[in-house]
Amino acid sequence: MNNSGLKLIEADAALQTVITEEQxxxxxxxxxxxxxxxxxxxxxxxxxxxxxxxxxxGMAGGQNKDYQYGKGGKSGESxxxxxxxxxxxxxxxxxxxxxxFILRSVEKLQGKSFIPTWDSMVVKMPNEGIxxxxxxxxxxxxxxxxKRPIFNVDFYLDPADLKSCLWVIPGSNKWTVQDSYDRxxxxxxxxxxxxxxxxxxxxxxxxxxxVLHGSPAGDGxxxxxxxxxxxxxxxxxxxxxxxxxxxxxxxxxMLLECIELRKQTSYGLAEEAFQYEPExxxxxxxxxxxxxxxxxxxxxxRE
Length: 303
Known about the structure:
Elements: E1 10-12, H1 21-30, E2 32-36, H2 41-60, E3 67-71, E4 78-84, H3 86-89, H4 91-97, H5 100-110, E5 114-124, E6 132-135, E7 151-156, E8 166-168, H6 177-184, E9 195-197, E10 204-208, E11 213-215, E12 224-233, H7 234-240, H8 247-263, H9 266-269
Parallel strand pairs: 1-2
Antiparallel strand pairs: 2-10, 3-4, 4-5, 5-12, 6-11, 7-10, 7-12, 8-9, 8-11
Helix pairs in contact: 2-4, 4-8
């Protein structure tokens, strides 16, 4: 129990193969779910090392637009805050995309024909934590009556304490657009109706795109690197976008390749691989090696 009175329910990837029905319902009701021990041992170390390489590239500057910067919370200088298309940049992230516990849990929430859409890493540099104001990542498509959630999986590569962790407003995924907008207009980083979600390195959070969340500037914060994978039910993406229909099979083949690449890792050999079998109009007739692990969103936006 916490100050909000909400009884927290967590999953544990070290003890389960997929989220339970109770954990699924907690996510649907509250808009988020903590999953402990998603990354462990060798995999955690390899992912941390790979993304540290990307962080150092970004800190050196002169990179392409995939590396994004903001005003440091303490120094006021330009500091790295985000890196896009991380699956393309590091082999360890391709294997992570094939994580069987995560994919089984996505399937349980979204159905067999889910699609991976965004992949990125958000950074809070030490002592420079940039405030992330209260926000929704996006709204559900207008006219969509499908109740399946669209959500991110947030993989924490570093511990997140009260100076750097995510804060969420439980149940705000059920609010109207207007109620969400009004709440975001409050001055400062008001946590009166929110709860913090401190985590250890290797833990993950599922968070609905419509749940209100953010994080304070974090005076004296340690480094926090968080990898984000967004997933969408394929049927919703096919009908409403925002990507064109050509995008879907490209990302499906990319996901199939990531699952195969995970099988070739030492940690992948020790687990039961996920079987990706989308259905109906989104069924895959034949696996084809993808040309890329990076499909720029702007090349596939619907008009």
